[in-house]
């Protein structure tokens, strides 16, 4: 049986514009100059992607093992 | 009289003439009239910052927030932003979408017209569904089937919520945070500084 998670991977592309916008806007509320905004935004984006990857891995493991 | 950013005073690190060590240090921001800036920031994302002549952030907020909003609006077929207070279709996501200001305001006009029996303008864009019956296949169900309705709703809601951050930034200035990693910390004061 095909994994439901993997069959919906295409929808993850929708997360990219969201991650970019959220990182930039959030970072812009923490700094005034463009350079620290971009540095902070990059860190937030990496953090979000890492968090999503961990959750994805956990869900995939749960689906593979128990479902 | 122009109001300065009243952000809490954080310790300033290192030599202030050195750009590298001051990268994350608080800077003074002229907020002009914060109430006017707050209203403009709500009315159109980035407009409050334009009024304050903070052009870089104005463009950033406008580009990020409006692109997310209109992208969600487009994938939702122009149907995801509508106001409805009917018992069977209370559109709570609109409260988040309304935080983006003018781009979501036509929904109020459309709701006003539709609830008074008039025809919706602009081919029904931002108008509430005409027939809502959760027990049968209604117009709302068709929208869910035809468009990326949930995704469009999420995108437009997030755009509205992001504008709340931009509104706060226009009204009170940035919430400066001290460096959070070892790499950003400036070098310790030298012995001859004492």
Description:
The complex is a heterodimer of chains A (67) and B (194). Helices cover 76% and strands 0% of the residues of chain A. Chain A is mostly helical. Chain A has one domain (14-66). Chain B is mainly α and 194 residues long. Chain B has helices spanning 34-43, 47-51, 55-75, 93-97, 106-115, 139-146, 149-172; strands spanning 85-86, 89-90. In chain B, strands 1-2 form a two-stranded antiparallel sheet. In chain B, strand 1 and strand 2 form a beta hairpin. In chain B, helix 3 packs antiparallel against helix 7. The longest helix of chain B is centred in the last third of the chain and has 24 residues, at 149-172. The A-B interface holds A 11, 14, 17-18, 20-22, 24-26, 28-37, 39 and B 23-24, 27, 29, 54, 56-57, 60-61, 64-65, 67-68, 71, 151, 155, 158-159, 162, 165-166, 168-169, 173-177.
Proportion of helical residues of chain A: over 70%
Widest β-sheet, arrangement of strands of chain B: 1-2
Q: Report the uncertain regions of chain B.
A: 7-19
Distance between the termini of chain A: 10 Å
Shape annotation of chain B = elongated
Per DSSP, the total helix count of chain B is 7
Per DSSP, what share of the residues of chain B sits in E-state strands of 2 or more residues? under 5%
Q: Please, how many helices of chain A?
A: 3
Look at the helices and sheets of chain A and give the structural class.
mainly alpha
What's the Cα radius of gyration of chain B? 23 Å
Strand content of chain A: under 5%
How many independent structural domains of chain B?
Answer: 1
Order of helices and strands of chain B: HHHEEHHHH
What's the end-to-end separation of chain B, in Å?
38 Å
Overall structural domain count of chain A: 1
Annotation, overall tally of beta strands of chain A: 0
Shape, principal axes of CA atoms of chain A: elongated
Mean pLDDT of chain B: 85
Order of SSEs of chain A, N→C? HHH
